[in-house]
Amino acid sequence: MAANLLEFDLEGLAAFCETLGEKRFRSVQLFRWIHQRGEAEFARMTDLAKSFRDKLAQHATVKVPEVLSQHLSRDGTVKWLFDVGSGNAIETVFIPEEDRGTLCISSQAGCAVGCRFCSTGHQGFSRNLTTAEILGQLWFAEHFMRRHLGRADRVVTNVVMMGMGEPLQNYDLLLPALRVMLSDHAYGLSRRRLTVSTSGVVPMIDRLARDCPVALAVSLHAPEDGLRDRLVPLNRKYPIHELLDACLRYLPGAPRDFITFEYCMLDGVNDHPDQAHRLLRLLRDHGGRGVPAKINLIPFNPFPASGLRRSPAARVQAFAAALNNGGIVTTVRKTRGDDIDAACGQLAGDVQDRTGVRVRMARSRSALQLLDTGRNT
Ligand code: SF4
Fold first, then answer.
1. Number of domains making up the chain
2. Whole-prediction pTM value?
């Protein structure tokens, strides 16, 4: 079977080239063609020796998941739904801002953590994405957006592993993808602009610190264990004090000198002023010196199965003010792409709910065809 070259980091690609009888340094040229130039056709990699190209055509491929649908919001946000087989779909979102372009990438089909406020969590876990499926989202989005916008320079400047799934529960397949994102021969992202978001898989936070320290975001959502046990069930295994200890261990080698804490604002659940003060004390006092932190308050995107409601805007602002006044920089996430769907995971959930019917209806062109035409569906 042909090897999908999106499975490999540079080291892996070099080893693959050796199996074809090619020198390792050839892999750098090939790596650049694939990731920097977005080329999937070996015949078009004109500065590679013809014999090498022929071997690649025989033994390798560059393959991304098929695009089921593409949604373009009035505010420029683009969401893609990719088919990853067996009725599973994953979402990828590109969010343009004045000074950056952020891509939100999925790491699993479904998720086993089962956070109460998360549409993906309600769908259950299907499987881990492969490295090629994780990286393919960036490969496709970067090169599609370049063609769509008529740009030659890099469009995706920031990546957040905040899409569907818990990235640290797919650690071994995530790691090569992160390395490619950081490589100067590929996407050249700085460690500060690559964020892994976790619900708190403590041992893997320690491994990430050793293997590939990038910016870290932690989904906290509650200031005490009782409530967090209910909102983020993983908390029963790794309670808040263990999670914050792991954050303190992470910081010395991290590219940023703070951890970002995500806090989804749920009406009447975790948005009382007392809870803001408990959160403040928790982060300020933990371990004696506190955890250097920024907090990102996220307006909840309601979906019927959750039984939860979004906190009123005034309460979110009051919560943010209490934290800011207490000395922790706190922002409220702007909602983007509201006109093209609601919460993360809902498009994919829609596909699953209709047991394949919508999948067949929505499937139009392959990702590579889309890339070739550069047009919206
Ligand atoms: S919030 Fe993240 S970790 Fe929790 S269920 Fe959703 S995808 Fe999984």
1. 2
2. 0.93
